[in-house]
Every structure is written in structure tokens, then in C-alpha cells.
Amino acid sequence: MSDNANDTIYAVATPPGRSAIAVIRISGGNAAKTPVLFSAPCPPAGQFNVSRLMLAGKVLDQVILLFMKGPQSSTGEDVCEIHCHGSRAVIDAIMVQLERASGFRLADPGEFTRRSFSNGKMDLSGVEGLADLIDAQTPAQLHQAWAQIDGALRTPVMAWRAELIEIVARLEAMIDFSDEDLPPVIEKNLRKGTKALITALAENLADGGVGELVRDGVVVALVGPVNAGKSTVLNGLAGRAAAIVSDEAGTTRDIIQIQLDLYGVPTIILDTAGIRNTSGAIEMEGIKRSVKAAANADLILVILDGSDKNWPEACDKIEKAINRQISQSSTNQRIVSGKSINDRPRLYVLNKADRGIVRANCSSEYKDKYNNPHDMLVISAKKQTDIDFLSTALAKRLTPLNHADSGVIITRQRHRQSMQIAHDALGRALTHDFQQAPELAAEDFRLAAGALGRITGEIDVEELLGSIFSAFCIGK
Ligand code: GDP
Hints:
Largest sheet: 6 strands, mixed
Oligomer: single chain
Bound molecules: guanosine-5'-diphosphate
């Protein structure tokens, strides 16, 4: 970040390249002087005008000029916007003129938003919501981003924090007047209020990670023995040739990743190397990665060649490899809150039904699965109708992971960690005797309030700001 927060900053807010319209934003004390640099009049506050920008007596462009007077603007400062034609020559000439003007400088990435935050126009969770909005690719992500901007997280967090500050104030008063006894009813009420807060935090933490899943997308790993039809399934789902389909065993050695909007669910599908015993070093590496990918996925889609009599053994082998990886891996944190990592959802697909499915050799476990279409689907991946059947089944499985209803407020690991710290600190606070050791209880309450304050950016945020704002593009 450039040091001078008082400079007037400018940047092109629209993507680079030729376009019908480009927008150049200017924010800061000199913003109202921008039109004058081009011999054009500045519109009155809150209005726009259509003006010709002039340079050295020649017409540069006919533009729309907007002017917003701070604090009634997006950054809280004076803001001018130039809506010009999106040609390289026009944009370059305007930018050069701004660069030459004294008191103006090019904005850093995210600096407009940072100024909104510094001027109290937006809290930190709203800033993150805005970043999510810009990155949104599906309707679910878009709605979640707007909920975040509109305070889905900020509103409850600020209310909890206000309650905690109130409790701390009461406890501090007790420390100051320690020779007076606390009426039992007050301690009872403080404890009741704290328990209610702990419950509220716990309920929100036990959301199955839905907000993060909507934001990051749901990851589905396709696993199975070589030649079971994984790439065919992937291509069918993608509706295009995203993976190489081949008769030669071991073609898909690395991981292929495609992004789909599966009935509104942002989904990343990983096609992995077939799992089998092999001595080929490259394929071994591919298999290692595939097991890892599966162990970290939100849903494991096990594809088996149902026409091969050995499919039950193949399935066992895969299950064992994945379970081993899940129990070894310390990075399996995608699904949190209450769910054991071994509960990672799985869906089994018996492929190549057109060749006839072999049911012999099935242990009772597989017979159960086989008889339950919720757990095991029988398809022929070469048929588009079966692929449609599979994608509907997948969407059904993923939707519970992905319904960002209004109750979900956590969209980032950062929020979750802070809420967990607050939750644990409140639990500890209750173990203290408020009468005998109010200062110990107050310390835990303060810690909890501090953790919540970090979510909205009310306290102690300097180290967070750099990483959050630098993720924005210049001009935002
Ligand atoms: P992968 O190694 O698991 O990715 O398997 P591929 O998708 O490359 O498929 C291996 C072979 O099985 C290819 O020749 C596919 O055309 C064939 N295949 C895939 N699905 C089916 C199916 O449903 N029926 C039949 N008969 N062949 C299939």
C-alpha cells in the first residue's frame, strides 16, 4: 500500500481491453478538480453531465462525468467518475493527464474499498462479501455475497459483541467495588446470558461448513479402477471433452479439474488416475494424488466397471486406500463442525450396465448398497440419459451441502476461527467464580469480545487488512 492516504487516487475500474465503455474512478480531495484537467465542468454533487474532454485544444472524447460529494459516496470521500469510450487511446490519454496532475496518483489494488472501510462505509465482513460478489460465478454465490454485504454476519456478531462488552463492564465494576457482594440474581443473569451466547455461537458453528462450500464450490472426486469409465463420466457431465478417454489403461495419470454449475451448485469435479497396483513411477504418483484428492473432496464418486466380476474387490481396495489417506492426513479440514471426516459422503456408480452387471461375488455389504439406489447407481456412461440421471443424483447429494439459507453466516475460515475462539473463551469464563475471581472471568469475556471484533474489523485488524485488500483488483 502507498503511504499517503490523503492522496487523490485514480484507476480504471473496468477490465483492460477494447470495450464500448470504460470507467475511470477518482477518489479524494482533488476529485472535483478532475474535469478541469480536461477543460470540462464538474457536475453538481450527486449529478452527472455529458461533456467533451479536451486536451491541447483537441477533442479527446465525449464522456459522462459523475460527481459524488463525500461522505455521500462509495469511499466516503469526494468521488468523480469518467465514463468514456473503452478505446486504448482514450483511456491512455486520460490516465497520462491524471498522472501529470499534482496531488493525484494511481490507486493500489483494493484501495477504493480500503478507503470505504477506513471511512466507516463498510465493515470487514462486508468488504469480504464484496470480494465474493466480484468473484461469484453461480446464483448461490451471488446471493450469499449480498447477504454478507447486507450484514448476515455483521449484525449478529455486533450484537453478541455488544452483549459481551456489557458483561465485561459489569464485571469491571465488581472489581472496582470488590468489597461489596454481588447480588446472586446478577450473577445468575450474567451466567444465563453467557450460556445463551455460547448456544448461539455453537449453533452457527455447527452449520456443516455450508457458507465456505458455497463460496469455494463443492469438490467431487471421481475415483475408481483404471478403465472403469471415469473420464467418460466426466466428459458426459461436462458436456464436452475435458478428459482424454482411452482404451489404454492408465491414461488419466494426473488430475483433471472441471468446474460445473450443477443445477445451481458450484461444483469442481476432479478426475483422478485409476487406482490399481502398478510399478510405473509416473502412474504411481498419479494414484497417490488421486487418493489424496479423494480424501480431501466433499463427495467421493466411486466409479466401478460393473461388467467386471471383480468390481466388489476393486471397490474394497479403493475404500481402504482412501480411508487410510483420510486417517493419515491432517489437512482434511474442509468439512468441520461435528462431522467425522470418515463420514465424507460417497456415491457408488456401477458403470457399463449395457454389458450386463455381474452380481456374483457380492458381499452382503455390497448387496445392501446395490439394492439402495441412493448409495449405488447403475448406469451406462456412454448414454447421455444415464449421465443426466447421474448428474441429478449428484445434485441431490450436493444440495444439502450447498443450501446457503439465511441462517448461514460463516463464509470464511477466518470467521469460523474467531467464533470458535469466542465460544471457547466464554466456556472458560463460566468456570470462574464471578464473586471470587471477577478479573479472571472478565479476561475471558474480553478475549471473546476481541475475537468477535476481529470479524467485523472493529479491533486489531492491521495485519488482516493487507491480505484482504490486496486480493482486489486495481480500481475496486
Ligand atoms: P477411466 O480409465 O476410468 O477414465 O475410463 P475411460 O472413461 O477412459 O473408459 C475406458 C473404456 O471404457 C473406454 O473405451 C470407454 O469408451 C469405455 N466405457 C466407458 N463407459 C462405458 C459404458 O458405459 N459402456 C461401455 N460398453 N463402455 C464404456
